[in-house]
Design brief:
It is built from seven helices and no strands. It has a single domain, classed as Protocatechuate 4,5-dioxygenase, Chain A, CATH 1.10.700.10.
Length: 106
């Protein structure tokens, strides 16, 4: 998994109007620059906030991306809950399950 590059893309989308413009104008070209896994790229393509959470994106980065893409706070929280139910535990990052425990901060 390329979690660092995924989070870097989201961080830059949250802060840089030029990256936002590139995302809106040619998402595929922008995604190619970050060399994401297929799962990561698909989650970005479809604005799948829940899947991004399961892939390990930090909530501080993800909540700003979710808001930029139009999700209200309660929709953001619900997306993460639904993703946990659909995909299972968080796979990487600080919310990942450890030692057989449950991952997920919500």
């Amino acid at each position: 998994m390329t979690l660092y590059r995924l989070q870097k893309l989201l961080y830059e989308l949250n802060r840089d109007p030029r990256v936002q413009e590139a995302f809106l104008n040619d998402r595929e070209c922008l995604l190619a620059e970050y060399r994401l896994s297929d799962d990561e790229a698909e989650a970005i393509r479809s604005d799948d906030v829940g899947k991004l959470y399961i892939l390990g994106v930090n909530g501080q980065i993800l909540m700003h991306f979710a808001a930029w893409r139009g999700l209200a706070w309660d929709e953001y929280i619900q997306a993460m809950k639904e993703a946990l139910a659909k995909h299972g535990q968080v796979k990487a990052g600080i919310y990942a399950a450890v030692e057989g425990g449950e991952g997920g901060a919500i």
